[in-house]
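Title: Comparing notes on inverse folding

I've been comparing how different people in this forum approach sequence design from structure. To keep things fair, I'm posting one structure and asking everyone to reply with a full sequence. Here's the target:
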């Protein structure tokens, strides 16, 4: 299955930290803490002070922080990567699986 990003809503957020594309971002423009709420997924990398497009509703392609099954509930790790939700805020659900950290997967964003 090809990975696709179908944004329903994209916001422009000013980066307050160096951001990596295809990772979670907070409304404050930072990398989220592990298990924290997120605004969405950065479309591009951004340096501090740059504006970055963040997909906040719809589907997005994101980097996995570990192996993740299709259909799993997702939370952010401390690097903004997608991992299987345990005790953190559920911010997405996967449409595809990832066999290992660093692989891309498609998620359905959940407003949180």
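Reply #1:
Here's my take.
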């Amino acid at each position: 299955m090809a990975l696709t990003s179908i944004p329903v809503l994209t916001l422009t957020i000013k980066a307050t930290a160096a951001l990596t594309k295809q990772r979670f971002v907070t409304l404050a423009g930072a990398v989220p803490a592990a298990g924290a709420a997120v605004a969405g997924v950065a479309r591009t990398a951004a340096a501090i002070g740059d504006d970055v497009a963040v997909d906040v509703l719809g589907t997005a392609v994101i980097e996995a922080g570990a192996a993740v099954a299709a259909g799993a509930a997702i939370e952010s790790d401390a690097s903004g990567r997608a991992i299987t939700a345990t005790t953190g805020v559920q911010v997405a659900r996967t449409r595809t699986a990832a066999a290992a950290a660093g692989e891309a997967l498609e998620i359905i964003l959940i407003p949180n």
